[in-house]
Design brief:
- This protein is of the alpha+beta class.
- It contains 16 helices and 13 strands.
- The relative contact order is 0.14.
- Helix 5 packs across helix 11 (about 195-210), helix 7 (about 110-125) crosses helix 9 (about 150-160) and helix 11 (about 195-210) crosses helix 13.
């Protein structure tokens, strides 16, 4: 299998060459989880995969609780479907807590302190839902517990990991928190770890494959042992193909795209780039720093048949417009396709 064939299968599995999925939360569920620290850009990560979806429709899905936004997997913001939130939290939380443990210690956040802040947050949101982080910080401080601008970040991490809070409605331009169980009632079933490992690996390799075990370890935030177990659980439904010195895993039903000259305007932190530890197929080393401008910071990119050919950004103007930078000479036909993709973005925002 060539790099071109790998990208063709990925574009198809990422739903970037068209999709039959009708509901945004089902798209998020198909993907497993979608990194979302850049909120408006992250919504476009769903929008660019679903041609009939608008930004306003995604806001409604988030306000309703069909899509949830919180820290999960490796400790950063992700979108998760309402159908997956509880089993994924159960599986992910122990690893995320370990990842932030040293910072907790530095900040003096003990288990007892977290229990108290969780109780305060839960009581406050039960009384008055959709509170901002600043409002919750003020409530915690007024209760006699210290919560400065850095500490409140970790306090809210733990409230998310404890299944207490998730995103509330957007109030003006401010993000708020709400009680998770008010958005999505908690199921009575107990989650079996092997079943959860199976689900997560299945979703990842079905939607992101061909990908490697190392890619899955990076994306999931789980231990190498857990990831090897997860991959072993899904092996009957997936193809394991040796390419060079790596084993690529993809679902047996994967079908490459038929379209050529497929242009996608991908948002910052899009799954097509961020979800792989090894990004050599889509991002040439010469242009690596133009898209990943510093550790952990990903810029919006222009993809042609899965290969990153440039970057783009929305201009801060009242009339929606974008600017582009090309990494290679751009033909008139490619420029025309980029302009067509730009028009789709404008329609999505309108």
């Amino acid at each position: 299998m060539t790099a071109k064939e790998i990208l063709s299968l990925r574009l198809s599995n990422h739903q970037l060459a068209g999709t039959e999925i009708k509901e945004p939360h089902n798209l998020v569920s198909w993907m497993g989880a979608m990194q979302s620290q850049s909120f408006e850009m992250a919504k476009w990560g769903i929008g660019c995969r679903m041609p009939d979806i608008t930004n306003k429709m995604l806001d409604k899905a988030l306000d309703k609780g069909d899509i949830l936004r919180l820290h999960i997997l490796r400790p950063t913001w992700h979108f998760v479907s309402k159908d997956d939130i509880y089993w994924m939290l159960d599986l992910s939380t122990p690893r995320v807590r370990k990842a932030i443990a040293s910072s907790d210690k530095e900040l003096g956040l003990t288990e007892n302190f977290i229990r108290k802040t969780n109780a305060i947050i839960e009581k406050a949101l039960a009384k008055d839902s959709n509170l901002t982080r600043q409002e919750l910080q003020d409530i915690i401080n007024n209760a006699g517990l210290k919560a400065d601008s850095r500490t409140i970040t970790h306090i809210m991490y733990h409230a998310e990991l404890g299944g207490i809070v998730c995103n509330g409605i957007v109030r003006g331009k401010k993000q708020t928190y709400a009680l998770l169980e008010e958005k999505v009632p908690k199921p009575k079933e107990i989650f079996d770890k092997d079943e959860s490992l199976y689900k997560l690996a299945y979703k990842y390799f079905q939607s992101h494959g061909p990908a490697t075990l190392q890619d899955f370890i990076w994306w999931s935030g789980l231990t190498a042992t857990e990831c090897r177990r997860a991959v072993d659980l899904i092996k009957d439904d997936f193809i394991f193909e040796v390419i060079g010195e790596q084993i690529y895993i993809f679902h047996r039903a994967s079908v490459p795209i038929k379209e050529v000259n497929l242009i996608n305007l991908l948002p910052a932190f899009d799954e097509f780039i961020v979800s792989y530890k090894d990004r050599k197929e889509t991002l040439h080393i010469d242009h690596h720093k133009k898209i990943i401008t510093s550790p952990g910071i990903f810029q919006p990119s222009i993809s042609k048949d899965g290969k990153t050919i440039g970057s783009w950004r929305k201009l801060p103007k009242k009339e929606i417009s974008i600017s582009t930078e090309h990494f290679y000479p751009c033909s008139k036909s490619t420029e025309k396709l980029i302009n067509k993709a730009s028009e789709r973005f404008k329609i999505y925002l309108s």
